[in-house]
């Protein structure tokens, strides 16, 4: 039976990825899942990969970056975002590639603000863009030739918009974003970024 490690499995996107892949096919990891992990902590990630053994693939739907008005951003906001969504995901690849069977994939998460900046996204935009740049760069590294590293870039998610009190019809349902992760795991090319946004 194939097994995919889903990091961020307790979150909105991660929980839908688990449903899409089938819970019996997933190892769920997050701060509150059966496998505990904090992706901002390299030691926590290393311990996770030491515990889980070999998997068919990894989906990382974890990692946060702060969305705040430019004039309210602090050094801590930047440090938090870089440690979580950027370095956390980079370290998923650095420490996790050895746990993935040859031909398997590690799929990271960026976001639509990488391509479409907006007010309040001054931290999120460069972090998402850097995740995508890392995916493209690492895909040409000979040391990772047997593992496909790719990415999904979700647009606004309908459930998130609803939680914010905004019109959810402007977003894409989390279940549809999860399908993009499934496709990237199964057939997404190394270095590719799959857009999952409302057209």
Put simply, the count of helices is: 6
How large is the share of residues in beta strands?
A: 15-25%
Share of helix, binned: 25-40%
Q: What would CATH call the homologous superfamily?
A: NAD(P)-binding Rossmann-like Domain
Overall pLDDT score: 94
CA-CA gap between termini:
36 Å
User: Major sheet: order of its strands?
Assistant: 3-2-1-4-5-6-7
Query: Number of domains in the coordinates?
Result: 1
Order of helices and strands: EHEEHEHEHEHHE
Shape: globular
Major pleated sheet = 7 strands, parallel
**Which structural class is indicated by helix and strand composition?**
alpha/beta
Please state the CA-atom Rg, rounded to the nearest Å.
16 Å
Q: What is the CATH architecture assignment?
A: 3-Layer(aba) Sandwich
Parts with pLDDT < 50 across at least 5 consecutive residues: none
What is the CATH T-level topology? Rossmann fold
Question: Could you name the CATH class?
Answer: Alpha Beta
How many E-type strands?
A: 7
């Amino acid at each position: 039976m194939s097994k995919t490690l889903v990091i961020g499995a307790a979150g909105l996107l991660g929980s839908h990825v688990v449903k899409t892949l089938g819970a019996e096919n997933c190892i769920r990891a997050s701060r509150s899942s059966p496998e505990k992990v904090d992706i901002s902590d390299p030691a926590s990630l290393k311990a996770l990969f030491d515990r889980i053994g070999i998997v068919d693939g990894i989906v990382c739907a974890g990692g946060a970056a702060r969305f705040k008005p430019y004039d309210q951003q602090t050094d801590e906001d930047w440090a938090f975002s870089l440690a979580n969504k950027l370095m956390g995901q980079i370290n998923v690849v650095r420490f996790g590639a050895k746990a993935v069977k040859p031909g398997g994939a590690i799929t990271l998460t960026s976001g639509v603000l990488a391509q479409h900046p907006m007010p309040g996204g001054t931290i999120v935009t460069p972090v998402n863009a850097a995740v995508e740049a890392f995916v493209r760069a690492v895909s040409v590294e000979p040391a990772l030739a047997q593992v496909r590293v790719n990415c999904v870039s979700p647009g606004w998610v309908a459930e998130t918009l609803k939680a914010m009190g905004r019109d959810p019809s402007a977003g894409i349902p989390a279940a549809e974003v999860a399908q993009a992760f499934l496709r990237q795991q199964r057939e997404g090319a190394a270095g590719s970024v799959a857009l999952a946004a409302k057209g």
